[in-house]
Design goal:
27% strand; alpha/beta; globular; 6-stranded mixed beta sheet
């Protein structure tokens, strides 16, 4: 599902990622961890081509994403669900509309889009807030809407950037359970986190980034 070869990313002369090689098989669940500034978010952005590598190559689902045309990249992104650290909710749309907007964009009919959206909102404890606008939600509720939006259309690859950052322990556990269910159904999942409690809650392949390199690749704890 993911292959990185000699991946390097430089910002303003500062090297964020340094010659990373990585292979992730379809259906794997893995964590990406490391100190703040280690390059976790940058690596995720390179996977869905929000950033381009300075050197090396990025392949997702057999396609080299850093060389795709705009049209082919848009088609590939339909297979990828991204949970952003800063939510990126549509301010003037309700909770339900934020989730169904993505589903409708991917071609689902209105009735099916609403069914799926309600189903995932209920699982995340947000069905009673479906008519609310993002501005009246707490940070944790906004986080869960962003998660619902990414999960609702059942993508083949899910990239999550600190998905439990604004959630309490119970909700973090529920989210992990939901991601496990989706993984069991065949999706590949990569979760960037600095939360060691999350890493310890589930045995999974863990990558530790340090100064732009993969310092460790294996089970947690190292």
């Amino acid at each position: 599902m993911i292959r990185l070869r000699n991946l390097t990313k430089t910002y303003d002369g500062r090297r964020i990622l340094r010659g990373i090689d990585l292979q992730v098989e379809a259906g794997e669940f893995l964590f990406l961890t490391g100190a703040s500034g280690a390059g976790k978010s940058t690596l995720l952005k390179l996977l869905y081509a929000a950033e381009r590598p300075s050197d090396g190559g990025v392949w997702v689902a057999g396609q080299r994403v850093d060389q795709l045309s705009r049209h082919k990249l848009a088609l590939l992104r339909r297979k990828i669900g991204v949970i952003f650290q800063d939510f990126k909710l549509l301010r003037h749309k309700t909770v339900l509309e934020n989730v169904t907007f993505v589903l409708r964009f991917h071609g689902l009919r209105t009735r099916e889009a609403h069914r799926r959206a309600y189903q995932v909102l209920k699982r995340l404890g947000l069905h009673h807030r479906q008519s609310a606008l993002p501005e009246v939600l707490s940070g944790g509720e906004q986080q869960r809407v962003a998660i619902a939006r990414a999960l609702a259309y059942q993508p083949r690859l899910i990239l999550a950037d600190e998905p439990t950052g604004n959630l309490d322990a119970d909700l973090a556990g529920e989210l992990l359970s939901l991601l496990c269910d989706i993984n069991y159904q065949g999706a590949t999942i990569m979760v960037a986190t600095h939360d060691h409690a999350l890493l310890e809650a589930m045995p999974a392949r863990t990558l530790v980034l340090h100064q732009g390199r993969i310092e460790y690749d294996g089970s947690w704890p190292p």
